[in-house]
């Protein structure tokens, strides 16, 4: 354990030293741990900056940044075992890209991250709230889903699975005999420029489930405003 701690500290120190100089970036770029190196302006000072993303090590993903104007370095650590998506898109409308990451933990659980370079520092921005979806089965092979964020109720037809529900003793000739409550999965977030104005929104998709089976899906669109996210629209559908 002590050896791993010392190794991790040494890696951090070496990377920080390499980030301090342009030649250090070249050395770091040749490292097998470098997942991405990109020259891009993210601070708004008209000077190109450097972003280096290292492969996760001991459950930590490192995003490293060198300010092109101030000639100083910063870094951000994220708990992750692997990384699925790396994108640079403008969420805030300031014509500067934010870094969007999709990462996975050891148990394959996904996490989403938005990182800004405003203020000449790497800063984690919030991600949208999860739609709060609840509901229950009704008589007549139906379910009602409540979107608690908007108060909208949606009825879902379950008739295509009535044979399964009858065999499971949930329904008998259309009458509900076993109460079933609904829940929803964690969202999948995808950056999308919904109106083509160059400013990206986040589209969120979730599954509505009953007894570990998907009965419907929800889709919502979120726009970043004042360092938070505003719900633009949402729907529940089969």
From TrEMBL:
It comes from the Bacteria. The lineage of its organism: Bacteria, Bacillati, Bacillota, Bacilli, Bacillales. Residues 1-20 form the signal peptide. The keyword Signal applies. This is FG-GAP repeat-containing protein. Keywords: Signal. It comes from Fictibacillus macauensis ZFHKF-1.
